[in-house]
């Protein structure tokens, strides 16, 4: 899974895990279709909806990441 960098663990994202919703940061060049495919392969679920949010750039050296929330149907 080259495009998904790491899972996000906040109070909200942990609460969403109970609803089969996963939150993770991915590389900025990844498309929604690629991310959907990676999530379906990694978690073994069918993605039925996806929300994306581009984080604001804080420092020039930082990579711009996408915050992705995938809603799945088990």
TrEMBL record:
<dbReference type="InterPro" id="IPR013025">
    <property type="entry name" value="Ribosomal_uL23-like"/>
</dbReference>
<keyword id="KW-0689">Ribosomal protein</keyword>
<dbReference type="InterPro" id="IPR012678">
    <property type="entry name" value="Ribosomal_uL23/eL15/eS24_sf"/>
</dbReference>
<dbReference type="GO" id="GO:0005840">
    <property type="term" value="C:ribosome"/>
</dbReference>
<dbReference type="GO" id="GO:0003729">
    <property type="term" value="F:mRNA binding"/>
</dbReference>
<dbReference type="InterPro" id="IPR012677">
    <property type="entry name" value="Nucleotide-bd_a/b_plait_sf"/>
</dbReference>
<protein>
    <recommendedName>
        <fullName>Ribosomal protein L23</fullName>
    </recommendedName>
</protein>
<comment type="similarity">
    <text>Belongs to the universal ribosomal protein uL23 family.</text>
</comment>
<dbReference type="GO" id="GO:0006412">
    <property type="term" value="P:translation"/>
</dbReference>
<keyword id="KW-0687">Ribonucleoprotein</keyword>
<dbReference type="Pfam" id="PF00276">
    <property type="entry name" value="Ribosomal_L23"/>
</dbReference>
<dbReference type="GO" id="GO:1990904">
    <property type="term" value="C:ribonucleoprotein complex"/>
</dbReference>
<dbReference type="GO" id="GO:0003735">
    <property type="term" value="F:structural constituent of ribosome"/>
</dbReference>
């Amino acid at each position: 899974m080259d495009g998904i960098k790491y899972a996000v663990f906040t109070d909200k994202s942990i609460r969403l895990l109970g609803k089969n919703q996963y939150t993770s940061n991915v590389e900025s060049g990844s498309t929604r279709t690629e991310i959907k495919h990676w999530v379906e392969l990694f978690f073994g679920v069918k993605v039925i909806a996806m929300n994306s949010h581009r984080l604001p750039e804080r420092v020039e050296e930082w990579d711009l990441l996408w915050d992705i929330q995938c809603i799945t149907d088990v």
